[in-house]
Amino acid sequence: MKKILVIGSNGQLGNCIRKIAPDFELDYEFVFTDSQTLDITNVDQVNTFFNNEKPDFCINASAYTAVDLAEKESEKAFAVNAEGVANLAQACLDNKTIFIHVSTDYVFDGETNLDYSEDDFTNPIGVYGESKLKGEELALEINPKTIILRTSWLYSEFNKNFVKTMLNLFSQKDELGIVADQYGQPTNANDLAEAIMKIIEAPTKTFGVFHFSNYPETTWFEFAKKIAEFSKSSVKLNALTTEQYPTPAKRPKRSTMCLDKIEETYKIELKHWENSLEECVEILSQ
Q1: Cβ atoms < 10 Å from Cβ of 28
Q2: Cys-Cys crosslink for 61: which of 14, 80, 95, 116, Cβ 3.0 to 4.6 Å?
């Protein structure tokens, strides 16, 4: 039986993998860790853990994701998103473990009208994106058996995310302003968890960088409108510009990613973001 190590199992993606793990327990043993049981920034702890567990696959679902706070806490962001990733990549190499690492659309600057391919020029505009890009580079440099999955606008029924924040605000406010000039692809973390398992089950592996999200693109404003519709909220939503809603960290204006590569390589069926969102809102409304 093959062993799958899931790093960051208390996060959104980690929880979604944990949810579907029983469906795969005949073929795989899952080991779930969080920052308390495994500190990826501690190289000795990582090496000892890998030497004991000897996993066949390692999914890194952990990250420093506080985009605005990262502007002040750059050392912390780089420690987790870059140095920690390097530690995992090396441990995977040493133990012949396939490394699956989750990254972000924030590695791009968003100054284009075209969908970004995996080979397009990266140019992060904030510390969070810079730290995630550094993690990608170190992982690929250290371990050729690395699969990097860039995703975007992740949400689920678990932890803090845009969907849960909106539902909470809808219950408290009559009117809300939402940014309407930033474009991206909302992604249900449950869909990402299923895609990762499909990659693990694939008989042959293609390594490198892949983009995965739901499709097509939308804005935060349109995303919020659909959350309101599916939750039957009567809240009034007003469209704002980025300038009207300043944040400590700049966001890419349009970080839409091309999804052809993962669809063709791993035969992964992509889902429309509205369908995946409706499923999530239904779960949260129960």
Answers
A1: 17
A2: 14
